[in-house]
């Protein structure tokens, strides 16, 4: 079964979740009372960024997660672009490919699930500081409840479960709302689809899982920073989700930049296993592949389309800045 089973164990999904960083001091009880109401119903979504070379255009949709749980995205501009696009570039990211058969994959599942827990059957209270555990208990009571199983998790995976529960209770959803809309348009109009991914192939995952289950991760910083963002940033996340849903680019620009999960990324990529698998190098290769695909599309097509996470797309080190540095014209939706 050539699947991404190990991706869960490596927490890749968690590391790709963007949070909004807001430098605000938490209240005395450590939990802010949220105020922003999340929009519902049909929403236009954001405008499209445009990368131009002469008469050739590449339209880029900046995606965001989490988004309002009860919104339905309707975008007339996107439909018009996809009706003309000769090529669509889809970013799939870094993927783990366990090169095993279906039944071997089933046999590995117990090990995979066990890899989420602390080595030597330690509980969360035994591996984090007393202050961190007190914060955890307050947030867990509010967002998770009495689940005892999460107390066995490594700090990184406990933080993942807490984040998911907090997002859900805030009226937000981390599922990809954008791609199904794009996929429907692709089915209707039939452009060429170029998939950009960097795959790390593991021929025999058993030794890796055994090593992983005994490895102590440097994930305490990830645990603490995740709690800080939940304590202080849920209102900013809702505001950003609303801005994306309603197409308010000015509001998106005015909100704090997307948090990049450095502490959680480093807990995996800087661990011995992460370095041996080449996570850091894979990210660099992925960026180079996407930029090459974008340049090729601009060379051969009159109209092309791509999706990118806003956190990767914008900023001085973002993908659009890299294309602009190469001489391409970049136009924002509000320009």
Automatic annotation (TrEMBL):
It holds the Pfam family TraB_PrgY_gumN. InterPro entries: TraB/PrgY/GumN_fam (IPR002816). Residues 1-21 form the signal peptide. Keywords: Signal. This is TraB/GumN family protein. It comes from Thermomonas fusca.
